[in-house]
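Notebook, p. 212. Picked up where the previous page left off. The plan for this session was modest: take the two constructs that came back from the sequencing core last week, fold each one, and keep the raw output in the notebook itself so nobody has to go hunting through shared drives later. Recording the first one now, exactly as returned: residue sequence, then the C-alpha coordinate string.
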Amino acid sequence: MSTHSLPVLPLVDDVVLPGMVVPLELDSERQAAVDAARTGDSDNSRVLLVPRPDGRYGGVGVVAEIVQIGRLPGGAPAAVVRALRRGRIGAGVTGPGAALWVEVSTLEDAPVDDRTRDLAAEYKTLLLSLLQHREAWQVIDAVHRMTDPAELTDSAGYASWLDREQKTQLLESFDVAERLELLLEWTRARLAEEEVSSKIGDEVREQLDKTQREYLLRQQLAAIRKELGEGEPDGSDDYRARVEAADLPDKVREAALQEVGKLE
Protein backbone atom coordinates (compact mmCIF):
# COMPACT_ATOMS: atom_id res chain seq x y z
CA MET A 1 0.00 0.00 0.00
CA SER A 2 1.21 3.50 -0.82
CA THR A 3 -0.09 6.93 0.18
CA HIS A 4 -0.28 10.13 -1.90
CA SER A 5 -1.68 13.62 -1.56
CA LEU A 6 -3.81 14.50 -4.59
CA PRO A 7 -6.29 17.18 -5.67
CA VAL A 8 -9.85 15.93 -6.14
CA LEU A 9 -11.54 16.17 -9.53
CA PRO A 10 -15.26 15.43 -8.99
CA LEU A 11 -17.39 13.35 -11.37
CA VAL A 12 -21.11 14.12 -11.33
CA ASP A 13 -22.57 11.80 -13.99
CA ASP A 14 -19.64 9.55 -14.82
CA VAL A 15 -17.74 6.73 -13.16
CA VAL A 16 -14.20 6.12 -14.39
CA LEU A 17 -12.47 2.80 -13.75
CA PRO A 18 -8.73 2.00 -13.98
CA GLY A 19 -7.46 1.64 -17.52
CA MET A 20 -9.98 4.04 -19.04
CA VAL A 21 -8.85 7.05 -21.07
CA VAL A 22 -11.56 9.72 -21.16
CA PRO A 23 -12.00 13.41 -21.97
CA LEU A 24 -13.53 15.52 -19.19
CA GLU A 25 -15.03 18.95 -19.66
CA LEU A 26 -13.53 21.42 -17.19
CA ASP A 27 -15.76 23.66 -15.12
CA SER A 28 -14.19 26.00 -12.57
CA GLU A 29 -13.92 23.27 -9.88
CA ARG A 30 -12.35 20.72 -12.21
CA GLN A 31 -10.07 23.37 -13.68
CA ALA A 32 -8.84 24.16 -10.15
CA ALA A 33 -7.98 20.48 -9.62
CA VAL A 34 -6.09 20.32 -12.92
CA ASP A 35 -4.20 23.54 -12.20
CA ALA A 36 -3.31 22.32 -8.70
CA ALA A 37 -2.03 19.01 -10.05
CA ARG A 38 0.17 20.69 -12.63
CA THR A 39 1.66 23.28 -10.29
CA GLY A 40 1.71 21.51 -6.92
CA ASP A 41 3.50 18.54 -5.46
CA SER A 42 1.15 16.01 -7.08
CA ASP A 43 3.06 13.14 -8.70
CA ASN A 44 3.33 13.58 -12.47
CA SER A 45 0.29 15.85 -12.75
CA ARG A 46 -2.08 13.39 -11.16
CA VAL A 47 -5.56 13.93 -9.78
CA LEU A 48 -8.07 11.79 -7.93
CA LEU A 49 -11.30 11.23 -9.87
CA VAL A 50 -14.12 10.79 -7.36
CA PRO A 51 -17.84 10.21 -8.09
CA ARG A 52 -20.06 12.88 -6.56
CA PRO A 53 -23.52 12.13 -8.00
CA ASP A 54 -25.68 13.67 -5.26
CA GLY A 55 -23.31 16.26 -3.87
CA ARG A 56 -21.48 13.69 -1.73
CA TYR A 57 -18.05 12.29 -2.42
CA GLY A 58 -17.66 8.53 -2.48
CA GLY A 59 -15.11 6.77 -0.32
CA VAL A 60 -13.14 5.41 -3.28
CA GLY A 61 -11.77 7.19 -6.32
CA VAL A 62 -9.31 6.45 -9.07
CA VAL A 63 -5.86 7.99 -9.41
CA ALA A 64 -5.48 9.42 -12.91
CA GLU A 65 -2.75 11.18 -14.83
CA ILE A 66 -3.46 14.20 -17.00
CA VAL A 67 -2.56 13.26 -20.55
CA GLN A 68 -3.56 16.38 -22.43
CA ILE A 69 -5.20 19.77 -21.97
CA GLY A 70 -7.27 21.25 -24.76
CA ARG A 71 -10.78 22.07 -25.89
CA LEU A 72 -13.79 20.07 -26.97
CA PRO A 73 -15.21 20.56 -30.50
CA GLY A 74 -17.71 23.08 -29.07
CA GLY A 75 -14.88 25.15 -27.59
CA ALA A 76 -15.25 24.18 -23.91
CA PRO A 77 -11.98 23.55 -22.03
CA ALA A 78 -11.26 19.88 -21.38
CA ALA A 79 -8.61 17.47 -20.12
CA VAL A 80 -7.87 13.96 -21.29
CA VAL A 81 -7.06 11.71 -18.32
CA ARG A 82 -5.84 8.13 -18.02
CA ALA A 83 -7.14 6.25 -14.97
CA LEU A 84 -4.44 4.20 -13.24
CA ARG A 85 -5.57 2.53 -10.00
CA ARG A 86 -8.15 2.66 -7.24
CA GLY A 87 -7.53 4.82 -4.22
CA ARG A 88 -9.23 4.90 -0.85
CA ILE A 89 -9.86 8.46 0.33
CA GLY A 90 -8.44 9.51 3.68
CA ALA A 91 -8.27 12.82 5.49
CA GLY A 92 -8.15 16.19 3.81
CA VAL A 93 -4.73 17.78 3.51
CA THR A 94 -3.40 21.17 2.56
CA GLY A 95 -2.25 21.87 -0.96
CA PRO A 96 -1.73 24.72 -3.41
CA GLY A 97 -4.50 26.39 -5.35
CA ALA A 98 -8.25 26.35 -4.84
CA ALA A 99 -8.67 22.59 -5.19
CA LEU A 100 -9.65 20.15 -2.46
CA TRP A 101 -6.66 17.97 -1.53
CA VAL A 102 -6.95 14.59 0.18
CA GLU A 103 -4.73 11.76 1.32
CA VAL A 104 -5.14 8.69 -0.91
CA SER A 105 -4.15 5.10 -0.14
CA THR A 106 -3.67 2.86 -3.17
CA LEU A 107 -3.63 -0.94 -3.14
CA GLU A 108 -2.39 -3.36 -5.75
CA ASP A 109 -4.73 -6.14 -6.89
CA ALA A 110 -4.19 -9.48 -5.18
CA PRO A 111 -2.35 -12.20 -7.15
CA VAL A 112 -4.62 -14.07 -9.56
CA ASP A 113 -5.60 -17.55 -8.35
CA ASP A 114 -7.34 -20.42 -10.17
CA ARG A 115 -10.81 -19.37 -9.03
CA THR A 116 -10.30 -15.86 -10.38
CA ARG A 117 -9.07 -17.25 -13.72
CA ASP A 118 -12.14 -19.49 -13.97
CA LEU A 119 -14.48 -16.59 -13.22
CA ALA A 120 -12.67 -14.42 -15.77
CA ALA A 121 -12.97 -17.11 -18.47
CA GLU A 122 -16.70 -17.51 -17.78
CA TYR A 123 -17.30 -13.76 -17.83
CA LYS A 124 -15.28 -13.33 -21.02
CA THR A 125 -17.41 -15.96 -22.78
CA LEU A 126 -20.65 -14.26 -21.70
CA LEU A 127 -19.31 -10.82 -22.62
CA LEU A 128 -18.32 -11.97 -26.12
CA SER A 129 -21.80 -13.47 -26.63
CA LEU A 130 -23.39 -10.17 -25.63
CA LEU A 131 -21.09 -8.18 -27.91
CA GLN A 132 -21.86 -10.53 -30.82
CA HIS A 133 -25.57 -9.83 -30.32
CA ARG A 134 -24.71 -6.15 -30.66
CA GLU A 135 -22.35 -6.77 -33.61
CA ALA A 136 -19.65 -4.78 -31.80
CA TRP A 137 -16.81 -6.40 -33.74
CA GLN A 138 -14.06 -3.90 -32.84
CA VAL A 139 -14.82 -4.26 -29.14
CA ILE A 140 -14.83 -8.06 -29.56
CA ASP A 141 -11.29 -7.90 -30.93
CA ALA A 142 -10.17 -5.81 -27.94
CA VAL A 143 -11.79 -8.22 -25.44
CA HIS A 144 -10.15 -11.20 -27.15
CA ARG A 145 -6.75 -9.61 -26.51
CA MET A 146 -7.36 -9.12 -22.77
CA THR A 147 -5.67 -11.70 -20.55
CA ASP A 148 -5.55 -9.85 -17.21
CA PRO A 149 -8.72 -10.47 -15.15
CA ALA A 150 -8.44 -7.05 -13.49
CA GLU A 151 -8.19 -5.31 -16.86
CA LEU A 152 -11.17 -7.33 -18.10
CA THR A 153 -13.36 -6.25 -15.17
CA ASP A 154 -12.39 -2.59 -15.39
CA SER A 155 -13.10 -2.45 -19.13
CA ALA A 156 -16.76 -2.62 -18.02
CA GLY A 157 -16.45 1.10 -17.34
CA TYR A 158 -17.12 1.59 -21.06
CA ALA A 159 -20.23 -0.66 -21.04
CA SER A 160 -23.37 1.27 -22.01
CA TRP A 161 -25.67 -1.39 -20.47
CA LEU A 162 -24.31 -0.82 -16.96
CA ASP A 163 -25.70 2.10 -14.99
CA ARG A 164 -23.84 4.50 -12.73
CA GLU A 165 -24.67 2.59 -9.55
CA GLN A 166 -23.31 -0.67 -10.99
CA LYS A 167 -20.11 0.99 -12.13
CA THR A 168 -19.74 2.58 -8.70
CA GLN A 169 -19.96 -0.91 -7.15
CA LEU A 170 -17.14 -2.03 -9.44
CA LEU A 171 -15.06 0.99 -8.52
CA GLU A 172 -15.49 0.42 -4.78
CA SER A 173 -14.49 -3.25 -4.96
CA PHE A 174 -10.77 -3.87 -4.55
CA ASP A 175 -11.23 -7.63 -5.08
CA VAL A 176 -11.06 -8.88 -8.68
CA ALA A 177 -13.06 -12.06 -7.98
CA GLU A 178 -15.82 -10.01 -6.36
CA ARG A 179 -15.99 -7.72 -9.40
CA LEU A 180 -16.16 -10.75 -11.70
CA GLU A 181 -19.06 -12.24 -9.72
CA LEU A 182 -20.98 -8.97 -10.02
CA LEU A 183 -20.31 -8.76 -13.75
CA LEU A 184 -21.35 -12.38 -14.30
CA GLU A 185 -24.70 -11.72 -12.64
CA TRP A 186 -25.33 -8.50 -14.57
CA THR A 187 -24.14 -9.84 -17.92
CA ARG A 188 -26.27 -13.01 -17.67
CA ALA A 189 -29.34 -10.88 -17.02
CA ARG A 190 -28.53 -8.50 -19.87
CA LEU A 191 -27.81 -11.31 -22.32
CA ALA A 192 -31.11 -13.04 -21.47
CA GLU A 193 -32.95 -9.75 -21.93
CA GLU A 194 -31.37 -9.11 -25.32
CA GLU A 195 -32.05 -12.66 -26.49
CA VAL A 196 -35.74 -12.27 -25.62
CA SER A 197 -35.86 -8.89 -27.36
CA SER A 198 -34.16 -10.34 -30.41
CA LYS A 199 -36.61 -13.26 -30.54
CA ILE A 200 -39.61 -10.93 -30.27
CA GLY A 201 -38.14 -8.69 -32.98
CA ASP A 202 -37.64 -11.66 -35.30
CA GLU A 203 -41.22 -12.83 -34.74
CA VAL A 204 -42.61 -9.35 -35.42
CA ARG A 205 -40.55 -9.00 -38.60
CA GLU A 206 -41.63 -12.47 -39.74
CA GLN A 207 -45.29 -11.62 -39.19
CA LEU A 208 -44.91 -8.30 -41.00
CA ASP A 209 -43.20 -10.03 -43.94
CA LYS A 210 -45.97 -12.63 -44.07
CA THR A 211 -48.70 -9.96 -44.00
CA GLN A 212 -46.93 -7.99 -46.72
CA ARG A 213 -46.57 -11.09 -48.91
CA GLU A 214 -50.26 -11.95 -48.48
CA TYR A 215 -51.25 -8.40 -49.37
CA LEU A 216 -49.13 -8.39 -52.53
CA LEU A 217 -50.50 -11.78 -53.59
CA ARG A 218 -54.07 -10.56 -53.12
CA GLN A 219 -53.33 -7.46 -55.14
CA GLN A 220 -51.85 -9.58 -57.92
CA LEU A 221 -54.84 -11.96 -57.80
CA ALA A 222 -57.27 -9.06 -58.05
CA ALA A 223 -55.37 -7.65 -61.03
CA ILE A 224 -55.40 -11.03 -62.79
CA ARG A 225 -59.14 -11.43 -62.25
CA LYS A 226 -59.77 -7.93 -63.51
CA GLU A 227 -57.66 -8.63 -66.59
CA LEU A 228 -59.62 -11.86 -67.26
CA GLY A 229 -62.96 -10.19 -66.61
CA GLU A 230 -63.76 -12.48 -63.70
CA GLY A 231 -65.58 -11.53 -60.49
CA GLU A 232 -64.98 -12.66 -56.94
CA PRO A 233 -65.46 -16.40 -56.24
CA ASP A 234 -68.86 -17.64 -55.10
CA GLY A 235 -69.51 -17.34 -51.43
CA SER A 236 -67.37 -14.24 -50.83
CA ASP A 237 -70.40 -12.26 -49.74
CA ASP A 238 -70.80 -14.30 -46.56
CA TYR A 239 -67.16 -14.12 -45.39
CA ARG A 240 -67.97 -11.21 -43.09
CA ALA A 241 -70.80 -13.10 -41.44
CA ARG A 242 -68.61 -16.15 -40.96
CA VAL A 243 -65.86 -14.08 -39.30
CA GLU A 244 -68.32 -12.25 -37.06
CA ALA A 245 -69.93 -15.54 -36.00
CA ALA A 246 -66.62 -17.28 -35.31
CA ASP A 247 -65.19 -17.45 -31.78
CA LEU A 248 -61.97 -15.49 -32.41
CA PRO A 249 -59.70 -13.34 -30.25
CA ASP A 250 -60.29 -9.61 -30.72
CA LYS A 251 -57.02 -8.96 -32.58
CA VAL A 252 -57.54 -11.93 -34.89
CA ARG A 253 -61.15 -10.89 -35.56
CA GLU A 254 -60.02 -7.32 -36.37
CA ALA A 255 -57.35 -8.56 -38.79
CA ALA A 256 -59.79 -10.98 -40.44
CA LEU A 257 -62.40 -8.27 -40.93
CA GLN A 258 -59.77 -6.04 -42.51
CA GLU A 259 -59.00 -8.81 -44.99
CA VAL A 260 -62.71 -9.30 -45.67
CA GLY A 261 -62.95 -5.60 -46.40
CA LYS A 262 -60.16 -5.91 -48.96
CA LEU A 263 -61.87 -8.90 -50.53
CA GLU A 264 -65.20 -7.06 -50.68
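Okay, moving on. Second construct, recorded in the same format:
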Amino acid sequence: MKLAANLSLLYPGLPLDARMAAAAQDGFKGAEILFPYDRDASTLTTQLHLHGLELVLLNTPLGENGEKGLACLPGRDADFRDGFQKALDTCLATGCKIIHVMAGEPPAGTDRATCFDTLVENLRWAAPLAAQAGITLTLEALNRHDVPGYFYYLPEQVIEVIRAVDHASVRLQFDFYHSQRENLDLDASLRRALPLVHHVQFASPINRREPRLDDPEVVTALCSLRDAGYEGWIGCEYIPQGDTSTGLAWRETYYALITPNKENRP
Protein backbone atom coordinates (compact mmCIF):
# COMPACT_ATOMS: atom_id res chain seq x y z
CA MET A 1 0.00 0.00 0.00
CA LYS A 2 2.78 2.40 -0.97
CA LEU A 3 1.77 5.92 -1.93
CA ALA A 4 2.44 7.26 -5.42
CA ALA A 5 2.46 10.97 -6.24
CA ASN A 6 0.19 11.88 -9.11
CA LEU A 7 2.47 14.36 -10.86
CA SER A 8 -0.26 15.50 -13.21
CA LEU A 9 -2.03 17.14 -10.25
CA LEU A 10 0.43 17.53 -7.36
CA TYR A 11 2.97 20.38 -7.23
CA PRO A 12 1.00 22.61 -9.63
CA GLY A 13 2.83 25.40 -11.39
CA LEU A 14 6.10 23.48 -11.63
CA PRO A 15 7.52 21.81 -14.76
CA LEU A 16 7.48 18.02 -14.65
CA ASP A 17 11.15 17.62 -13.76
CA ALA A 18 10.73 19.97 -10.78
CA ARG A 19 7.61 18.05 -9.74
CA MET A 20 9.66 14.88 -9.73
CA ALA A 21 12.32 16.52 -7.59
CA ALA A 22 9.72 17.81 -5.14
CA ALA A 23 8.00 14.41 -4.90
CA ALA A 24 11.31 12.69 -4.22
CA GLN A 25 12.15 15.30 -1.59
CA ASP A 26 8.80 14.55 0.06
CA GLY A 27 9.64 10.86 0.24
CA PHE A 28 7.62 9.46 -2.64
CA LYS A 29 9.11 6.46 -4.47
CA GLY A 30 6.36 6.05 -7.08
CA ALA A 31 4.69 8.44 -9.51
CA GLU A 32 1.63 8.50 -11.73
CA ILE A 33 1.76 10.64 -14.87
CA LEU A 34 -1.55 10.55 -16.68
CA PHE A 35 -0.44 11.64 -20.15
CA PRO A 36 3.37 11.70 -20.42
CA TYR A 37 3.33 12.05 -24.19
CA ASP A 38 4.63 15.59 -24.55
CA ARG A 39 8.22 14.48 -24.08
CA ASP A 40 10.55 11.84 -25.42
CA ALA A 41 10.30 8.57 -23.49
CA SER A 42 14.07 8.33 -23.08
CA THR A 43 14.15 11.81 -21.51
CA LEU A 44 11.30 10.85 -19.20
CA THR A 45 13.18 7.70 -18.19
CA THR A 46 16.34 9.68 -17.43
CA GLN A 47 14.40 12.14 -15.27
CA LEU A 48 12.67 9.38 -13.33
CA HIS A 49 15.95 7.62 -12.64
CA LEU A 50 17.61 10.89 -11.63
CA HIS A 51 15.01 11.42 -8.92
CA GLY A 52 14.73 7.78 -7.85
CA LEU A 53 11.10 7.49 -8.92
CA GLU A 54 9.25 4.55 -10.38
CA LEU A 55 6.55 5.38 -12.92
CA VAL A 56 3.68 3.17 -11.73
CA LEU A 57 0.76 4.29 -13.93
CA LEU A 58 -0.07 6.13 -17.12
CA ASN A 59 -3.22 6.48 -19.23
CA THR A 60 -3.78 5.70 -22.86
CA PRO A 61 -3.81 8.95 -24.87
CA LEU A 62 -6.91 11.06 -25.36
CA GLY A 63 -8.36 11.32 -28.85
CA GLU A 64 -7.06 13.97 -31.22
CA ASN A 65 -10.34 15.86 -30.75
CA GLY A 66 -10.18 15.65 -26.97
CA GLU A 67 -12.12 12.39 -26.69
CA LYS A 68 -11.84 10.93 -23.17
CA GLY A 69 -10.35 7.73 -24.51
CA LEU A 70 -11.00 5.69 -27.62
CA ALA A 71 -11.33 2.07 -26.57
CA CYS A 72 -15.14 1.86 -26.72
CA LEU A 73 -15.70 4.04 -29.79
CA PRO A 74 -16.96 2.06 -32.81
CA GLY A 75 -14.95 2.62 -35.96
CA ARG A 76 -11.96 4.06 -34.09
CA ASP A 77 -10.07 0.81 -33.65
CA ALA A 78 -7.05 2.00 -35.62
CA ASP A 79 -6.82 5.21 -33.57
CA PHE A 80 -7.10 3.24 -30.34
CA ARG A 81 -4.36 0.83 -31.41
CA ASP A 82 -2.03 3.68 -32.38
CA GLY A 83 -2.57 5.31 -28.99
CA PHE A 84 -2.16 2.06 -27.15
CA GLN A 85 1.12 1.39 -28.91
CA LYS A 86 2.35 4.81 -27.79
CA ALA A 87 1.42 3.97 -24.20
CA LEU A 88 3.07 0.56 -24.47
CA ASP A 89 6.26 2.04 -25.91
CA THR A 90 6.41 4.54 -23.05
CA CYS A 91 6.00 1.72 -20.55
CA LEU A 92 8.72 -0.32 -22.19
CA ALA A 93 11.10 2.66 -22.02
CA THR A 94 10.32 3.67 -18.44
CA GLY A 95 9.53 0.32 -16.83
CA CYS A 96 5.95 1.36 -16.01
CA LYS A 97 3.79 -1.71 -15.32
CA ILE A 98 0.23 -0.34 -15.48
CA ILE A 99 -1.70 1.23 -18.35
CA HIS A 100 -5.11 2.66 -17.55
CA VAL A 101 -7.06 2.07 -20.75
CA MET A 102 -9.51 4.94 -21.16
CA ALA A 103 -12.81 3.73 -22.60
CA GLY A 104 -14.18 7.07 -23.74
CA GLU A 105 -17.62 8.58 -24.16
CA PRO A 106 -19.95 6.86 -26.66
CA PRO A 107 -21.08 9.26 -29.38
CA ALA A 108 -24.69 10.40 -29.19
CA GLY A 109 -27.05 7.82 -30.62
CA THR A 110 -24.54 4.99 -30.46
CA ASP A 111 -25.88 1.68 -29.17
CA ARG A 112 -24.32 0.82 -25.81
CA ALA A 113 -24.07 -2.86 -26.69
CA THR A 114 -22.01 -1.98 -29.76
CA CYS A 115 -19.67 0.13 -27.62
CA PHE A 116 -19.39 -2.69 -25.10
CA ASP A 117 -18.41 -5.15 -27.84
CA THR A 118 -15.93 -2.66 -29.29
CA LEU A 119 -14.29 -2.17 -25.91
CA VAL A 120 -14.06 -5.90 -25.26
CA GLU A 121 -12.53 -6.59 -28.66
CA ASN A 122 -9.97 -3.79 -28.28
CA LEU A 123 -8.99 -5.11 -24.87
CA ARG A 124 -8.71 -8.66 -26.21
CA TRP A 125 -6.31 -7.31 -28.83
CA ALA A 126 -4.29 -5.24 -26.33
CA ALA A 127 -4.13 -7.68 -23.40
CA PRO A 128 -1.72 -10.23 -24.95
CA LEU A 129 0.64 -7.42 -25.97
CA ALA A 130 0.58 -6.09 -22.43
CA ALA A 131 1.03 -9.53 -20.91
CA GLN A 132 4.06 -10.21 -23.09
CA ALA A 133 5.66 -7.06 -21.63
CA GLY A 134 4.64 -7.83 -18.05
CA ILE A 135 2.14 -4.96 -18.02
CA THR A 136 -1.36 -4.93 -16.56
CA LEU A 137 -4.24 -3.02 -18.14
CA THR A 138 -6.66 -1.35 -15.75
CA LEU A 139 -10.18 0.01 -16.25
CA GLU A 140 -11.61 2.74 -14.02
CA ALA A 141 -15.17 3.91 -13.41
CA LEU A 142 -15.35 7.73 -13.65
CA ASN A 143 -18.14 9.59 -11.87
CA ARG A 144 -20.93 11.31 -13.80
CA HIS A 145 -20.41 14.71 -12.17
CA ASP A 146 -16.85 15.19 -13.39
CA VAL A 147 -16.95 13.06 -16.54
CA PRO A 148 -20.55 12.98 -17.79
CA GLY A 149 -21.21 10.42 -20.49
CA TYR A 150 -18.15 8.27 -19.81
CA PHE A 151 -18.79 4.62 -20.67
CA TYR A 152 -18.91 3.41 -17.06
CA TYR A 153 -19.35 5.13 -13.72
CA LEU A 154 -19.77 2.14 -11.40
CA PRO A 155 -17.15 -0.49 -10.47
CA GLU A 156 -19.78 -3.17 -11.23
CA GLN A 157 -19.94 -1.97 -14.84
CA VAL A 158 -16.17 -2.26 -15.12
CA ILE A 159 -16.28 -5.76 -13.65
CA GLU A 160 -18.76 -6.78 -16.35
CA VAL A 161 -16.27 -5.72 -19.02
CA ILE A 162 -13.36 -7.46 -17.32
CA ARG A 163 -15.29 -10.71 -17.10
CA ALA A 164 -16.22 -10.47 -20.77
CA VAL A 165 -12.59 -9.95 -21.80
CA ASP A 166 -11.51 -12.83 -19.56
CA HIS A 167 -7.78 -12.14 -19.59
CA ALA A 168 -5.49 -12.11 -16.55
CA SER A 169 -3.84 -8.88 -17.66
CA VAL A 170 -7.08 -6.83 -17.52
CA ARG A 171 -7.95 -5.64 -14.03
CA LEU A 172 -9.81 -2.94 -12.12
CA GLN A 173 -8.57 0.46 -11.00
CA PHE A 174 -10.56 1.47 -7.91
CA ASP A 175 -10.79 5.16 -7.09
CA PHE A 176 -12.21 6.22 -3.72
CA TYR A 177 -12.97 9.69 -5.09
CA HIS A 178 -15.12 8.56 -8.00
CA SER A 179 -16.98 6.07 -5.82
CA GLN A 180 -17.75 8.64 -3.16
CA ARG A 181 -18.84 11.19 -5.75
CA GLU A 182 -21.39 8.60 -6.87
CA ASN A 183 -22.51 8.27 -3.22
CA LEU A 184 -21.68 4.57 -3.21
CA ASP A 185 -21.08 2.56 -0.05
CA LEU A 186 -17.32 2.84 -0.39
CA ASP A 187 -16.29 -0.21 1.60
CA ALA A 188 -19.02 -2.46 0.19
CA SER A 189 -18.11 -1.47 -3.38
CA LEU A 190 -14.44 -2.04 -2.70
CA ARG A 191 -15.03 -5.43 -1.11
CA ARG A 192 -17.06 -6.62 -4.10
CA ALA A 193 -14.30 -5.52 -6.44
CA LEU A 194 -11.30 -6.65 -4.37
CA PRO A 195 -10.50 -9.86 -6.28
CA LEU A 196 -9.98 -7.76 -9.42
CA VAL A 197 -8.40 -4.62 -7.95
CA HIS A 198 -4.88 -3.93 -9.24
CA HIS A 199 -4.47 -0.21 -8.56
CA VAL A 200 -6.11 2.25 -6.15
CA GLN A 201 -6.38 6.04 -6.06
CA PHE A 202 -7.93 8.40 -3.56
CA ALA A 203 -8.84 12.01 -2.84
CA SER A 204 -11.43 13.84 -0.80
CA PRO A 205 -14.86 13.80 -2.51
CA ILE A 206 -15.10 17.51 -1.63
CA ASN A 207 -13.36 19.48 -4.40
CA ARG A 208 -10.91 16.59 -4.96
CA ARG A 209 -8.58 17.84 -2.23
CA GLU A 210 -6.25 15.95 0.14
CA PRO A 211 -7.59 12.56 1.30
CA ARG A 212 -9.78 12.75 4.41
CA LEU A 213 -8.31 10.37 6.94
CA ASP A 214 -10.94 11.57 9.45
CA ASP A 215 -13.67 10.13 7.21
CA PRO A 216 -14.85 6.79 8.71
CA GLU A 217 -15.77 5.52 5.23
CA VAL A 218 -12.23 6.05 3.98
CA VAL A 219 -10.67 4.54 7.08
CA THR A 220 -12.87 1.45 6.85
CA ALA A 221 -12.07 0.95 3.18
CA LEU A 222 -8.33 1.38 3.74
CA CYS A 223 -8.51 -1.20 6.52
CA SER A 224 -10.28 -3.58 4.14
CA LEU A 225 -7.46 -3.14 1.64
CA ARG A 226 -4.87 -3.67 4.35
CA ASP A 227 -6.58 -6.74 5.77
CA ALA A 228 -7.02 -8.24 2.29
CA GLY A 229 -3.25 -8.08 1.82
CA TYR A 230 -3.34 -5.50 -0.98
CA GLU A 231 0.26 -4.84 -2.01
CA GLY A 232 -0.27 -2.45 -4.90
CA TRP A 233 0.16 1.30 -5.10
CA ILE A 234 -2.28 3.95 -3.92
CA GLY A 235 -2.16 7.00 -6.14
CA CYS A 236 -2.52 10.42 -4.55
CA GLU A 237 -4.62 11.84 -7.38
CA TYR A 238 -5.86 15.09 -5.89
CA ILE A 239 -5.67 18.85 -6.31
CA PRO A 240 -3.72 20.28 -3.36
CA GLN A 241 -5.55 22.96 -1.42
CA GLY A 242 -2.36 24.94 -0.93
CA ASP A 243 1.30 24.01 -0.87
CA THR A 244 1.55 20.34 -1.81
CA SER A 245 4.31 19.48 0.65
CA THR A 246 2.59 21.17 3.58
CA GLY A 247 -0.65 19.40 2.69
CA LEU A 248 0.98 15.99 3.03
CA ALA A 249 0.52 16.01 6.82
CA TRP A 250 -2.31 13.47 6.36
CA ARG A 251 0.28 10.80 5.53
CA GLU A 252 1.23 10.38 9.17
CA THR A 253 -2.31 9.23 9.95
CA TYR A 254 -2.27 7.01 6.88
CA TYR A 255 0.95 5.25 7.86
CA ALA A 256 -0.26 4.80 11.42
CA LEU A 257 -3.39 3.15 10.05
CA ILE A 258 -1.76 0.71 7.64
CA THR A 259 1.50 0.14 9.55
CA PRO A 260 0.92 0.31 13.30
CA ASN A 261 4.55 -0.61 13.98
CA LYS A 262 6.48 2.68 13.68
CA GLU A 263 9.73 0.89 12.85
CA ASN A 264 8.23 -0.36 9.56
CA ARG A 265 6.88 2.97 8.36
CA PRO A 266 8.48 4.84 5.43
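Notes on construct two before I forget. The mean pLDDT is 95.
Flagging for discussion at group meeting.
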